[in-house]
From TrEMBL:
Pfam families: Peptidase_C1_2. The keyword Signal applies. It comes from Paralabilibaculum antarcticum. Keywords: Aminopeptidase, Hydrolase, Protease, Signal, Thiol protease. It comes from the Bacteria. The keyword Nucleotidyltransferase does not apply. PROSITE patterns: THIOL_PROTEASE_CYS, THIOL_PROTEASE_HIS. Residues 1-20 form the signal peptide. SUPFAM superfamilies: Cysteine proteinases (SSF54001). InterPro entries: Papain-like_cys_pep_sf, Pept_cys_AS, Pept_his_AS, Peptidase_C1B. This is Aminopeptidase.
Length: 462
């Protein structure tokens, strides 16, 4: 009998020793203290009943005192026409970039409406991202598969995401075309399947390239293998999106009913026609990142889509400075690319974003008190969506009280396609604005000319 009892006794002794060594254990005393902090009194019972029987915690926490308090009127607003719709794709950065140019095209050509072909630039964006992925795989082929940089590249060889420099790179190289020249397809409007297939194909080709390098293949052989991989990518894109035109003939009817002469353009020539300022590289990204020093320029390694293009580079500034520069741009009728954490405190039905729109603290009786810096460092908040910044409303002292976005989710979203957000929300959840350099003050201009501080491709902010 003693033999049979020996093992359980020893096991219990060992378990006790292990538990004693682990000071982070939730022991009986601690658990009892935690359990006793909650009781199903009448108030908690009512809240529990409401939450457990509700389809949405968010809807239960909607702050009644905020409803109807924010209107959609703005003292200063860019003259814009029409709302675009990116459908089920992650191309907000592309739509937003084009939406900053679109008002000038409508004005200069005296049009009732106009839009670019997002499908055309999407084709080249994914194609160029595929090339950059393969180049990154070749460059890191001698690193271990679990190296942090290699893992980052393999995690997402291509996707729809991007920022303003992504549009700048692809438009600079390939130009733009009107929407009717290369219309959207079912695939460009719903990109999940093609992205999944491209990722599988590219990971396989990347694995082969790594093996070629490991087997001491010549640079010529490696390049030839990369070109063959890109031929497959081009084929897949052409079958799903159509083949992009080398040139096209275009004419239009203006707002007075006059039909223009038909002219032949290359996409690059059309870009020069409709956006001459674009070629002058006058636009700069300014950003509010309280985790880093202000008045410094930062550059994220390999965050681009075109191998020879520019990386994501930005000047970090305090919110008040960004707001002042943005107001100057709006007053001058110039829309701006902007990006934010759109999901935070966003009342989609009202088209309003304001602090405490959803009062989770009162619903649960717990505090949610992180500031912007803490939210960034803990990955609780970051830029999730790009929209066009077009409006600002001010008080009697010309201080901003609320702002307006032109979104790319169609007219059924928000306030007929637009979103209004308070100045306080701007401070907490706005991250980036792309603006003409001429609106920056002397201090910001000087900082802009400093050498960028390099950040890794896996940086927490991106």
């Amino acid at each position: 009998m003693k033999k049979f009892l020996l093992v359980p006794v020893m096991a219990l002794a060992f378990c006790g020793m292990s538990l004693g060594q682990n000071k982070g254990t939730v022991d009986a005393k601690m658990l009892n203290d935690i359990r006793s902090s909650f009781s199903l009194d009448a108030s908690n019972t009512a809240i529990q009943n409401a939450i457990t029987n509700s389809e949405s915690i968010r809807e239960l926490s909607l702050n009644r005192s905020k409803i109807g308090k924010t209107d959609h009127f703005f003292k200063y607003r860019v003259a814009v026409k029409g709302i675009t719709n990116q459908k089920s794709s992650g191309r907000c950065w592309m739509f937003t970039s084009m939406n900053t140019i679109r008002p000038n095209v409508i004005k200069d050509l005296n049009l009732n409406s106009f839009d670019f072909s997002h499908n055309y630039n999407y084709f080249w964006d994914i194609f160029e991202k595929s090339n950059l992925f393969l180049e990154n795989i070749i460059a890191t082929a001698n690193k271990d598969m679990d190296d942090r940089e290699v893992v980052r590249y393999l995690k997402s060889p291509v996707d729809d995401g991007g920022v303003w420099n992504s549009f700048f790179n692809v438009a600079k190289k390939y130009g733009v075309v009107p929407a009717e020249v290369m219309p959207e397809t079912k695939v460009s409007n719903k990109t999940r399947e093609i992205n999944s297939l491209l990722k599988e194909k590219l990971r396989g080709e990347g694995y082969k390239l790594r093996k070629l390098v490991a087997d001491k293949a010549s640079a010529k052989e490696v390049k030839a293998a990369k070109v063959e991989a890109l031929k497959s990518v081009y084929r897949m894109l052409a079958l799903c999106l159509g083949e992009p035109p080398v040139d096209f003939t275009w004419r239009y009817k203006d707002a007075d009913g006059k039909i223009s002469e038909a002219k032949k353009y290359t996409p690059q020539e059309f870009m020069a026609l409709v956006a001459p300022e674009f070629a002058k590289d006058e636009m700069v990204m300014i950003m509010n990142d309280p985790t880093r020093e202000y008045y410094k320029v930062y550059e994220i390694k390999n965050y681009r889509n075109v191998a020879e293009g520019i990386n994501w580079t930005y000047l970090n500034l305090p919110n008040d400075e960004i707001k002042a520069f943005a107001m100057a741009s709006i007053k001058n009728n110039q829309a701006m690319y902007a990006s934010c954490d759109v999901g935070k405190q966003h009342n989609r039905k009202a088209g309003v974003m304001d602090m405490n729109t959803y009062d989770y603290a009162s619903l649960f009786g717990v505090e949610f008190d992180m500031d912007k810096k803490a939210r960034i460092l803990t990955r609780q908040s970051g830029s999730s969506h790009a929209m066009t910044l077009i409006g600002v409303d001010v008080d009697e002292n010309e201080k901003p009280v609320k702002w307006e976005f032109e979104n790319s989710w169609g007219t059924s979203s928000g306030n007929k396609g637009y979103l209004t957000f308070t100045d306080e929300w701007f401070s907490e959840y706005m991250f980036r604005v792309v603006i003409n350099k001429k609106y920056l003050d002397e201090k910001a201009q000087k900082a802009l000319n400093s050498a960028p501080i390099k950040l890794p491709v896996w940086d927490y902010m991106f």
